[in-house]
Here is the input.
Amino acid sequence: MATLGAPFIPPHCPRSDCRFHRSALGWRWTRHGSFTSHASAHRIPRFRCVHCRHTFSSQTFSTTYWLKRPDVLIAAAFRLLACSGYRQIAREARCSPTTVLTHAARLGRHALLWHERHRPSGPIREPLVIDGFESFAHSQYHPLHLNLVVGTPSHFTYAFTHTELRRKGRMTAQQKRRRAWLEAVYGRPDPRGIETGMRAALRLAARAPQTLRLHSDEHDDYPRALRGLGHNIQHERTSSLEARTAGNPLFPVNRLDLLLRHNSANHKRETIAFSKRHQSVVERCAWLLAWLNWSKPFSERHGGGTPAMRLGLSTRPIPIRELLRSRLFPTRVPLPEPWDEYYGGRVRTRRIRNERRHCLRLAG
Here is the structure.
């Protein structure tokens, strides 16, 4: 079997302990044979770094690195955006739901690195809308809040963070007792979590001190979240009871809330496909936002360009296959907090003990 396509040229040494990992200037490598795998129809070339002497292959730079079913990654990428649950995807791909979960986690990690690598540089030159998207994971006793920062008029999502909430709203006496017991056993979420989470999201969106024009609803935590950011902020508030039309100043984030529910099976109302772990919510959200920012036109019928095109970051929509064309390394794209925590799988679900973390040294 012959290798398909043009000869592969390694872009850099994949080993993080090699001095040519972050920069390939002066780097040398040699061919080191090839191999075949059950998942590939052609021979995969191998290479050796002349400097650190470690070997690697062209597959090392692929988003399907170390996957036994690489064909599932693209299928899961499309189906997760089409409001499919893990078991539905697994039935179509003829694999285990756990395999789909593994691929969804990789998509989320890749999306976080993509967001960071291709984020707008320089100061933000458009007004921002901030709001929170509420859902739950594991059970309705463990709600969560996704803090969103969206641009107007580009509709580009600059940042998001996750906040664990305490169950609220109308409850029966039995439900209140159940909540009290769970909090006594597993602890109570931070009562100022939304304030902390929104402040972190704004720090992710605007890294350097600048003038920001913000729109939000009348949530009491948002003014407190803006304190101490170091920005010159003009904050305007709009009642959440206002009609959610295109003329509403909160329309960009209202539209994002709609798309999060429309394209995500785990956020549908009265669904059995809800996420069992808060970490999964973050990963699926990151992948959806990457697609919304770079691939999806503003209007399915009338076009209008993607948010990245509206912001001048791209000249065309980026297809999903192109988003997943090459592997991104966290050692080459350092993630800020709390995205570094999200990448490492360290978002806690209180009622799950010994949750699995992403701590593989060489895998993506």
In short: The mean pLDDT is 93.
